[in-house]
Design goal:
Blueprint: E1 2-5, H1 9-14, H2 16-22, H3 28-40, E2 44-50, E3 53-65, E4 69-79, H4 88-102, E5 107-110, H5 117-125
Parallel strand pairs: 4-5
Antiparallel strand pairs: 1-2, 2-3, 3-4
Length: 139
């Protein structure tokens, strides 16, 4: 078992089956292009690999804002539905925390859909706090 940043096309595409469980609207044919585009803006993909297969994936970026200063924002954090509750999410989450600290971040944040109760339990067990409500409007 190892945790790696996805850099090659093979590694990025190897994360699709896990990411698509959280983001089922994604098309595999466009996934690599979209990830590569976002990487130009600072996004990164990290995955926990078990037996040469991604079982947990996170997409994240480092940014700065007035409210938080320098922070790591997690866009997606998902564990393969057949591999959940085996500690893989916790290991990947801890990796993200260490990465943030090593890159001078003072905060790690993420948004989670209101319907994702299992994810909320996980984040609360990892000592995260619910610090705001996120509002949006489709344009």
């Amino acid at each position: 078992m190892s945790i790696k940043l996805a850099e090659s096309e093979f590694q990025i595409l190897g994360c699709f089956s896990v990411i698509s469980q959280l983001r089922p609207h994604l098309e595999e044919a466009k996934f690599l292009e979209q990830v590569r585009y976002q990487m130009k803006e600072g996004y990164q993909v990290v995955f926990l690999e078990l037996e040469e297969q991604a079982v947990a994936v996170a997409r994240f970026r480092i940014s700065t804002c007035l409210a938080l200063g320098k922070f790591l924002y997690v866009d997606d954090l998902v564990v393969d539905e057949l591999k959940r509750s085996q500690g893989y999410g916790k290991q990947l989450f801890q990796w993200l925390i260490e990465y943030a600290k090593n890159h001078g971040c003072k905060h790690l944040s993420l948004d989670s859909g209101v319907q994702r109760f299992g994810a909320h339990r996980f984040y609360l067990m990892e000592r995260m706090s619910i610090t705001s409500h996120h509002f949006g409007i489709e344009l």
